[in-house]
Amino acid sequence: MFIPALRAEIAKLLTTKIWWILAIILFLYVAGVSGGLGALFGFLSQSADADASGSAPPTDVLAPMLYGTVSTFGYVFPVLLGALAVTSEHRHQMLTPTFLATPKRGIVLAAKSVALLMFGAIYGVIGVIASVGAGAGALALFGLDTQLGESDTWAMIARAILALALWAVIGVGLGALIPNQVAAIVVILAFTQFVEPTLRALVSLAEWAATVGKFLPGAASDALLGAPSFFTMGMTGDSLEWWQGGLLLAALALVLTVLGYVVSWKRDVT
């Protein structure tokens, strides 16, 4: 029963335009951020007073920082995709035929989560191509080391794909917990674009706050990559290990999905 449900969820995603529209925006956004910042820091590194001012990070820090923008700035897109995959069914009243075909609602939600895990990984590949392609191109343009010959860089890239896959499942949980599509989108955009960036900026001011801030979802995502990010520059205290960041994201996805199942998924949808 699970495999047919999984196939149905994949088919639903492929028959909509939103998945590839978000994918295109993800690619352009991440490429713009990574390439733009790479060009900026490349220019600063070539300026006459760059060494004295310390304006540009060393290349062994700069390269993974640019490649990590796929997670630091791009994670909102798989979250939106996951949430829309759930809320769209509520909005267009598609859950009734879905539950008639697969009466066990837990299987439907599990299949949706696995389908979005797969699509999140696809988003990860698209985002990595954008961040690495644009970032490495900018570094090479200014004669800086791209770090693409390092095994640690490729391990980080693989973990970036995993991070975006987990973010898509988190989106499923949020969509199940907040079935109203407009409300879910507002919550996601408000948290990812304002609330968490503000909190991460504030916690960087004190060591005790940084100890708490490293458990924020975005910080856990950056920790999973195991690469420096623009939010961790100048921060005091230790960040999570990469596996701890991954476990935290996976736990968040599980908790939100279970809560969504209990709060709204079991309700009467007729």
Which SSEs are present, and which pair or pack?
Blueprint: H1 2-14, H2 18-46, H3 50-53, H4 59-67, H5 69-72, H6 76-91, H7 95-101, H8 105-141, H9 151-177, H10 181-203, H11 207-213, H12 217-225, H13 242-265
Report on this structure.
The chain is mainly alpha-helical and 270 residues long. 77% of the residues lie in helices and 0% in strands. It is built from 13 helices and no strands. The chain has helices at residues 2-14, 18-46, 50-53, 59-67, 69-72, 76-91, 95-101, 105-141, 151-177, 181-203, 207-213, 217-225, 242-265. 44% of the residues are buried. The mean pLDDT is 89.
Describe the biggest sheet?
none
Mean of pLDDT: 89
Q: What's the shape?
A: globular
Fraction of residues in H or I helices:
over 70%
Summary tags:
270 residues, 13 helices, mainly alpha, globular, single chain, 0% strand
Write a brief structural summary.
This protein is mainly alpha-helical. The protein has 13 helices and no strands.
